[in-house]
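ARCHIVE CARD
CATEGORY: sequence design from structure
SOURCE FIELD: tokenized fold
FIELD CONTENT:
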């Protein structure tokens, strides 16, 4: 496959191995985990070949670089497994939205509050949107009172990330769960 004109050569990700290590001497750790001290690179390569393994640069920024004799294929496989495990354990925080009106009925309000509590238990943030229609714009104080009521009821499990603010015909407030 031809590279485009003046394209940089492909860069290798991961540590340098075997002949890619171009320093005069390295700090060597052998395949049994024993520190061999500072050794010429060629001698370290010979030891790796003798053991039937690879010479892998573990800490390239050290002076001299730290290299270890190990099976590179196995090392790469284990690091990929470790990376996938950490990705699996990672939780992406989503922002869930709850929409209300200023003159919401008590039962509807309670249903919305249960949903908000469930979102917090799942570790998600909640954006509470209060939509004003028609003459309701004249009673923004009622909307603010409702949002403050939501804030007070969720105070033990959530904190305000962004205070209530008016954006056109709607008032928006973002709550985030408290990390324990």
């Amino acid at each position: 496959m031809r590279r485009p004109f003046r394209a940089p050569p492909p860069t290798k990700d991961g540590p340098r191995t075997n002949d890619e290590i171009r320093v005069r001497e390295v700090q060597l750790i052998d395949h049994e985990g024993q520190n061999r001290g500072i050794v010429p690179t060629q001698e370290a390569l010979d030891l790796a070949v003798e053991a039937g393994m690879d010479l892998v640069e573990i800490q390239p920024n050290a002076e001299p670089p730290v290299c270890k004799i190990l099976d590179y294929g196995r090392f790469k496989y284990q690091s990929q497994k470790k990376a996938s495990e950490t990705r699996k354990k990672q939780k992406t925080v989503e922002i869930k939205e709850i929409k209300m009106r200023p003159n919401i009925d008590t039962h509807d309000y309670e249903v919305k509050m249960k949903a908000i509590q469930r979102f917090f238990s799942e570790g998600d943030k909640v954006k509470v949107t209060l939509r004003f229609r028609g003459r309701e714009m004249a009673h923004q104080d009622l909307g603010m009172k409702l949002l403050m009521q939501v804030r007070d009821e969720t105070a033990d499990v959530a904190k305000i990330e962004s205070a209530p603010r008016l954006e056109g015909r709607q008032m928006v407030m973002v709550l985030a769960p408290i990390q324990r």
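CARD ANNOTATION: The two ends are 54 Å apart (CA to CA). The chain has a mean pLDDT of 89.
SHELF: design records, drawer C
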